[in-house]
Amino acid sequence: MAKVLVGLSGGVDSSAAAALLIEQGHEVAGAFMKNWVNAEGIPGDCPWESDLEDALAVARSLGIEFRVIDLIDQYKERIVDYLVEGYRSGITPNPDVWCNREMKFGVFLDYALEQGFESVATGHYARKRTLSDGSPAILRGADPNKDQSYFLSLMTTEQAARAVFPAGELLKPAVREVARRFGLPTAEKKDSQGICFIGEIKMSDFISHYIPDKPGEIVDTTGKVMGTHRGLHLYTLGQRKGHGVASPREGMAYVVVGKDIGRNRLVVGWDLGETPGLYARECIIGSVSTIGSPLLQGGPRWLEAQPRYRAKAERAEILPREDGRVTLRFQTPQRAIAPGQICAFYEGGRLLGGGVFESVEA
């Protein structure tokens, strides 16, 4: 039995995870990561205080030690600054994936190990296994509708070895039933849909607080001016609504297909397979991370690549590059792959790792 520190977020999944570990006989303590307090008054709901109260109530109900860990400075440095600089440079970063690597299984895990804990548990819907050679493996969650392994794709092998995901072995209704069985105050609490640790604040409002509007022209793929945008940081590839260019034809729509950073132009085109810039087959991926065995051992490899959270994993060939990055060639062209987004690599139901899209080609 292990000594485990559970990251209690105030939600039902992490609450049930703590209860399951206690039931299994582990020595369990809970901790709330205080990463964001919205002191700057950004519009939206940042319910950290009520989440903290819920986490404390869960710990009391379970009779376990509870800690509040102030990680605000580290969160700003590792997540907020990364997010803002990414949007400022024209890419579309994914804060949730980086939050898991840098915060939950980075700073928080380091704290847990320093305090004598052997591992960290969260409420993620993913499954953890130990292979015959002793290396860790992360599998998709048992509930296909809730699987969150994609968000763990940038974890290192060392981080995965110390991670525990009790909720990932169950379907969502069964997780709520665990919470009810233990009489936890979060049993019926609604799931959060917000940015990692920030709450239900619109990304556009969050980014606009840090990056001033910089209006420019909206053009089509021929260079014809179609309107004016507020700032390139507020748009992402494939965006169908909110860009302000109305469709003149029934059943057709303009989507964002590119950003001309040098001329501050937003490029739109028809939402069609042949529209330049909308679909890509080949990509360059950097910041590559692997879990368990090496992703590449000298040559190309076929695997399943998932280009965004709710996308289907698609068959693709991955090839090593001399600079440490990889080239990824999808068997079927993929729609609206934006630099800065995360690609997760799988083999069957096993997560192999992931990386960051840096550039794409048709």
Describe the overall structure.
A 6-stranded antiparallel β-barrel has the order 12-15-14-13-16-17. A 5-stranded parallel β-sheet has the order 3-2-1-4-7, sandwiched between helices. It is of the alpha/beta class and 362 residues long. Helices cover 24% and strands 30% of the residues. A hairpin with a 7-residue loop joins strand 13 and strand 14. The chain is built from 7 helices and 17 strands. Helix 1 packs parallel to helix 2.
| Number of helical segments with 4 or more residues | 7
Proportion of beta-strand residues: 25-35%
Termini gap? 52 Å
Number of strands: 17
Low-confidence stretches: none
Q: What's the overall average pLDDT, rounded?
A: 93
Assign an overall shape: globular
Largest sheet, spatial ordering of strands = 12-15-14-13-16-17
Structural class: alpha/beta
Fraction of residues in helices? Answer: 10-25%
Following the backbone from N to C, one meets helices and strands in this order, namely EHEHEHHEEEHEHHEEEEEEEEEE
Cα gyration radius (Å):
22 Å
Largest sheet: 6 strands, antiparallel, barrel
